[in-house]
Write a structure and sequence with these properties.
By secondary structure, this protein is an alpha/beta fold. The protein is built from 8 helices and 7 strands. About 35% of the residues are buried.
Length: about 240
């Protein structure tokens, strides 16, 4: 005799199913609204990093300097719109020549919109927000951060590695912070043959702000900042 209890279907409210269905329209609305707002910000660089970095800490000042240099060089700067490194990136761009863009996420804790945004777009869904980081970026600059930063970094690496988006510079800033992870990539991941050795070429480790800007320009010396028609087509399926 099977004593496993079964949940009566009557205990699953039909109203919940309807709510889930309507949620799809909310997701669609986020994609449409964000795409419309961000369509003209190219070229752009997405900068990721910890929300917990304080303004008096070195990585905050470094992110602000990088963002200012990028903005003055003609790049819009996209950040998560919150505090910490996100604020530093928006602040540097805000006082530069190109737009400062904040992709804000609604969270129960930690996230509050910083005031240094020329363009501000809010999201309820992390995945919709992450698509926008990828869709409109010509490069990623990744400062030290926690789980959220690692999530965004791995998302970018996966999409570029698998060809779901165009190959763009992925620059890690902070040799001391990222060095252990890079060593682990080179030993554990390559030794176990779960990535190819040439996959390491997707990542650059740079600490100097001027070198960050130069590395991005060098990447596009031959290809140009505008994606090809084939690359645009691939991005439709991110």
């Amino acid at each position: 005799m099977n004593d496993t209890p079964k949940l009566p279907t009557s205990d699953i409210p039909a109203a919940w199913d309807a709510k889930e269905a309507w949620r799809v329209f909310g997701i669609m609305s986020e994609f449409v609204s964000a795409t419309d707002r961000l369509a003209n910000i190219h070229p752009a660089v997405s900068i990721f990093g910890s929300a917990r970095t304080r303004p008096n800490q070195p990585y905050y000042k470094l992110a602000e300097e990088i963002a200012r240099l990028l903005s003055d060089a003609g790049f819009s700067v996209i950040s998560g719109g919150g505090p910490g490194i996100m604020e530093a990136a928006n602040k540097g761009a805000f006082y530069g020549k190109s737009p400062s863009v904040g992709l804000n996420i609604q969270l129960p804790h930690e996230q509050s919109n910083n005031p240094y945004q020329n363009i501000s777009q809010s999201f309820q869904h992390f995945f919709a927000r992450k698509v926008m980081f990828v869709k409109f970026a010509n490069a990623y600059v990744v400062m030290p951060g926690g789980f959220g930063t690692l999530d965004e970094l791995m998302e970018a690496l996966t999409l570029v590695q698998t060809g779901k988006t165009r190959r763009i510079p992925i620059i890690l800033v902070g040799t001391k912070f990222w060095g252990g992870m890079i060593d682990w990539f080179k030993t554990a991941l390559i030794d176990e043959k779960v990535i190819h050795p040439e996959d390491m070429e997707l990542i650059q480790l740079i600490d100097d702000p001027q070198e960050v800007v130069r590395a991005i320009f060098k990447h596009y010396e031959t290809s140009g900042f505008e994606p090809t028609e084939a690359e645009r087509e691939r991005q439709l399926y991110l």
